[in-house]
Design brief:
Elements: H1 3-10, E1 19-24, E2 27-33, H2 37-48, E3 51-59, E4 64-72, E5 77-85, E6 92-94, H3 104-114, E7 117-119
Length: 146
């Protein structure tokens, strides 16, 4: 599928998206609410046949963002699903490990440093912080004094 066909394919899920941005021909940002992330990621992996690359977690101004990055290698297009988590007190999002086991460690890392709960994750134990790290303290949150 070429780039135009890819855009048309992605438009099939526009009801789950807040916005679609394409600042460059080979770069797409799909913004969604956290509750739609799992379905969108599954669609990209299973229907579009995009390759999972990694996940990024961000403590943004008034929310958390979890960005799932995919590559559609046929057109060298990077597709980022930007899931917005509005609840700063109890941030959570559905884990994608049931469809993409490769996301397990990076979701654990994001949980360690930002405190985002990945619901239905198979192994949400600490990955990079020491076992004696204080509970409820997340080093990459903006409120942590450095």
């Amino acid at each position: 599928m070429n780039q135009e066909e890819l855009k048309n394919k992605i438009s099939e899920i526009k009801d789950k998206l807040e916005s679609i941005e394409q600042p460059l021909e080979n770069r797409m940002y799909l913004t969604c609410k956290a509750e739609n992330n799992y379905d969108i990621s599954k669609f990209l992996f299973e229907d579009v046949k995009a390759r999972f690359v990694t996940v990024t977690g961000i403590d943004a101004e008034h929310c958390f963002e979890v960005l799932y990055h995919f590559s559609y290698d046929q057109t060298s297009c990077v597709i980022t699903v930007k899931a917005i988590i509005s609840d700063r007190e109890n941030p959570s999002i559905e884990s994608i490990t049931s469809i993409l086991p490769a996301a397990e460690w990076i979701e654990r890392e994001i949980h360690d440093v930002l405190g985002i709960d990945f619901k239905n994750h198979p192994n949400m134990r600490r990955l990079i912080l020491s076992d004696d790290w204080p509970e409820g303290v997340y080093p990459l949150r903006k409120e942590i004094k450095k």
